[in-house]
Write a structure and sequence with these properties.
The chain has twelve helices and two strands, in the order H-H-H-H-H-H-E-E-H-H-H-H-H-H. With 350 residues, the chain is mainly α.
């Protein structure tokens, strides 16, 4: 793709504008959004992603259009997995519901900045070193195996990272929230609030997720512009998705396993691509491996949709079965209860 400079600039300006409006609106009136509000904003963001992908399809061809949709779906599914950790962080720090939207908004801004840095570094590495695909592929395969072994993250399994522990230990904090303020002055001392710790926890946690997601999307497209826009659209609706889904996320019991299969597929795709463009002298004498196939984007997109669809269906079927299996059995309406046994009748007396 040959992306003019003005397109890059317009994309960044529009993204920053949307974020600024969002921050101003939320900052002026911190509140817990209603389901209607979340659904409306989420529909706008998803429609925007679909329209953008359609535009890429029309103006740049089906290959790049397919790459955008594959990357967007992958990043979106990985972002949904992030929501489990976000919910745990909010619960651990007892963030009031009306302030959670502000914390998420700032966390998303931090995530976009950090992912932009990762995207630039990834693009530079790919342009300079073709063997980096071996590294990306091996890392994703390792991550997939680890994710499958760990399964779904439970609340008691979450532990603050070393950076957050250091901040809490070295800097004095208030004993409670002060609205959405990050720093306050009390009794002549400058203190941080729990809200600052929560935002740092959200930002650093997403940094760890970016280590997985950026190599994953570079396994689907080598175009930095598509990588950036796919991440933007995936993160923009994350805040509304957090409130809209809520407890429904707990029903996606197989999400971690589905994502592990997804990352495994992309990891294998990256290794095959690296073998196809091999330049390492100790692999096939530095020549490309002829039998290594290139997985076309249409197959990647079909596989991603299939994995996510099967994961969602199996998860909902299991939770439905578990919920109905745990319910106590009741006698049908209109029928008498079972007759007492002889021992029960004797104990009950006349």
């Amino acid at each position: 793709m040959n992306i003019p400079g003005w397109v890059w600039l317009a994309t960044l300006v529009i993204t920053i504008g949307v974020l600024v409006v969002d921050v101003v609106v939320i900052g002026r009136r911190p509140h817990e959004p209603s389901m209607k509000e979340c659904g409306r904003y989420l529909a706008v963001y998803i429609s925007g992603a679909v329209l953008f992908g359609t535009g890429v399809l029309v103006f740049s061809g089906p290959r790049y259009g397919g790459e955008f949709f594959a990357g967007w779906l992958t990043e979106y599914s990985l972002s949904v997995d992030n929501l489990f950790i976000f919910i745990i962080i909010m619960s651990k720090f007892a963030v009031p519901r009306q302030y959670q939207q502000t914390a998420l908004m700032v966390g998303i801004v931090m995530a976009l900045i950090m992912r932009g840095i990762f995207i630039a570094l990834g693009a530079a590495a790919i342009n300079q070193f073709s063997w980096i695909f071996y590294v990306f592929g091996a890392f994703l395969i390792y991550t997939a195996i680890k994710l499958a072994q760990e399964g779904q993250v439970e609340e008691e399994e979450y532990e603050e990272n070393r950076f957050i522990k250091t901040v809490e230990r070295r800097f004095p904090a208030t004993d409670g929230y002060r609205g959405v303020k990050l720093l306050v002055r009390e009794n002549g001392r400058r203190l941080m609030t729990p809200m600052l710790i929560v935002m740092l926890a959200l930002g650093t946690t997403d940094l760890l997720f970016a280590v997985d997601s950026i190599p994953a999307i570079y396994g689907l497209t080598r175009e930095p512009y598509l990588v950036l826009t796919a991440n933007i659209f995936a993160l923009m609706g994350l805040r509304q998705l957090y409130f809209l889904l809520g407890g429904l996320l707990q029903r996606l019991v197989y999400l971690s396993y589905g994502l592990s299969v997804l990352l495994l597929f992309i990891g294998v795709k990256l290794v095959l691509h690296a073998m196809h463009e091999n330049e390492l002298p100790f692999i096939n004498g530095g020549e490309h491996v002829e039998w290594a196939p290139e997985i076309p984007i249409w197959l990647s997109l079909t596989t991603i949709v299939g994995i996510l669809g099967v994961t969602a269906v199996l998860s909902l079927l299991k939770t439905h079965r578990d919920n109905h299996g745990d319910a106590p059995a009741e006698p049908p309406a209109g029928e008498p209860d079972a007759e007492p046994t002889a021992g029960e009748a004797n104990r009950a007396g006349p």
